[in-house]
Design brief:
Number of helices: 13
CATH class of the largest domain: Alpha Beta
Radius of gyration: 23 Å
Distance between the termini: 17 Å
CATH architecture of the largest domain: 3-Layer(aba) Sandwich
CATH superfamily of the largest domain: NAD(P)-binding Rossmann-like Domain
Strand content: 5-15%
Shape: elongated
Length: 357
C-alpha cells in the first residue's frame, strides 16, 4: 500500500481544526511544527529539514525562528508542489529558492485582514492628529480644556484656503488603495510611491504618483503598506529621515524591518519625527528595554494586531490556504500565487496530475 501524501504544517495553527479535518478527509498525513518556532530567537532549520522530508505541500502562519529556506524545500524532495501561507506576508519564505525549485508560494490576502489594516491605519492617524489619548487622560486627571492639546486638521477647507495635510502612502496595493479610498472624502492631498502599480490605479484612487524621495520631502504623514523585500527592508532609515520635513507623523502597519527603529527613535528624540504609530517591530514581541517604550505620547504602539477584528484574524486565511493546498494536490493552479512567474512551469509539470481525489 502506497504511503499517504504528507503535508508539513511548519507553524502551529490553533484557531480552527477545519483545515486538519479537510486534510485528513483527503487522505493526507500531517506533520506539525512546534509552538516555540514562533519565537524570533534560535534556529530550527535542521529540525525542520528532517520534518519536511517527503512533503508534497507545506502550510503555516508566520514563522520567525527559521524561515522556510531553500534547504528546507529541497529536503521535501522533487514532489513538493506548494508552500501555502495563511497570512498576507510571505517574507518568511525564500521566494527565490521556491521559484528555482518550481514550487508555488501562495498567501492569503483576505479582505477581513487587509481591510482591517487600512481601517486601523486611519484610526491611528486620527488618534495622533486629534490627540485623543492626551485629551482623555487630561479629563480623567480632573482637568478641562488644555490649550496644549490642539489637534491638527487633516483635510482641506475651501472657506479659508487651508490646504490640508499631505499624506504619503508607500505602497498602493490592497491596503494602501483602501487607505486612499477612506481618506478621499477628507479632501487632503494624497501622494503615493509604488513602482509596481500601473498609473491607472493612481488615477482611480485620486492619488498623485511620486518618487520615494519626493514623497519623503513633501509628506506631513507617511504611512507604509509594503511587503518586506530586499528593496523595502530598512527603507525608512537615517538617510530617509534626513529627506523628510520637520515634525512629520510616521505610521508603519506593514513589516517591522521596513523601518529602522534606531533611526526612528533618534528622529523622535530630535523632533524630526513628531509622532509615530507602529503595529510592527524589527523584533517581536517588542523587547522590554526598547527605546520605543520610553517615548510616551510620541508613539502609539500596537502588538501586531491592527488586522485583528471579529471574523478576521487567521481563520479566513486558514480556509484560503487549505483550499490552495488541496487544489495544488489535485493538479489545479491555486489562487493567490505570490511568485506568479513559476505558474507556467508548475502547470506544465502538475496540471491535471492529481495525487488526491
Amino acid at each position: 500500500m502506497a504511503p499517504r501524501p504528507k503535508v508539513f504544517v511548519f507553524a502551529p495553527i490553533k484557531e480552527s481544526l477545519e483545515w486538519q479535518e479537510a486534510f485528513e478527509a483527503a487522505g493526507l498525513d500531517l506533520v506539525l511544527g512546534k509552538a516555540d518556532w514562533h519565537d524570533p530567537q534560535g534556529n530550527n532549520e535542521d529540525e525542520m529539514i528532517e520534518m519536511a522530508k517527503g512533503a508534497v505541500a507545506m502550510m503555516g502562519t508566520s514563522i520567525r525562528s527559521s524561515p522556510i529556506s531553500k534547504k528546507i524545500m529541497q529536503a521535501a524532495g522533487d514532489d513538493l508542489r506548494i508552500v501555502a501561507k495563511c497570512t498576507i506576508g510571505v517574507d518568511d519564505v525564500d521566494l527565490k529558492g521556491a521559484s528555482q525549485l518550481g514550487v508555488l508560494v501562495t498567501h492569503a490576502p483576505t479582505e477581513s485582514n487587509w481591510g482591517g489594516v487600512a481601517e486601523g491605519t486611519i484610526a491611528m492617524m486620527l488618534t495622533l492628529l486629534k490627540k485623543a489619548r492626551e485629551r482623555d487622560e487630561n479629563m480623567k486627571a480632573g482637568n478641562w480644556r488644555n490649550p496644549d492639546l490642539q489637534g491638527l486638521y487633516l483635510g482641506s477647507r475651501e472657506m479659508d484656503d487651508y490646504p490640508g495635510l499631505t499624506v504619503g502612502i508607500v505602497g498602493l496595493g490592497r491596503i494602501g488603495g483602501r487607505v486612499s479610498k477612506l481618506l478621499r472624502p477628507w479632501g487632503c492631498r494624497m501622494i503615493a510611491h509604488d513602482p509596481y502599480i500601473p498609473d491607472s490605479r493612481f488615477e482611480e484612487h485620486g492619488v498623485e504618483k511620486v518618487s520615494y524621495d519626493k514623497l519623503l520631502a513633501e509628506s506631513d504623514i507617511i504611512t507604509f503598506h509594503v511587503t518586506l523585500t530586499p528593496e523595502t527592508r530598512q527603507m525608512f532609515d537615517a538617510k530617509a529621515v534626513a529627506k523628510c520635513k520637520d515634525g512629520i507623523i510616521l505610521i508603519n502597519d506593514s513589516r517591522g524591518q521596513v523601518v529602522s527603529e534606531k533611526a526612528l527613535c533618534d528622529a523622535l528624540d530630535s523632533g524630526k519625527v513628531a509622532q509615530a504609530a507602529l503595529d510592527v517591530f524589527e523584533d517581536e514581541p517588542l523587547s522590554k528595554d526598547s527605546r520605543l517604550l520610553k517615548m510616551g505620547h510620541k508613539v502609539l504602539l500596537s502588538p501586531h494586531m491592527v488586522s485583528s477584528n471579529l471574523a478576521s484574524g487567521l481563520h479566513p486565511g486558514l480556509i484560503w490556504a487549505t483550499k490552495c493546498v488541496l487544489n495544488a494536490l489535485k493538479g489545479v493552479t491555486p489562487d493567490a500565487v505570490f511568485n506568479k512567474d513559476v505558474i507556467p512551469v508548475w502547470e506544465q509539470r502538475y496540471k491535471s496530475k492529481a495525487i488526491i481525489a
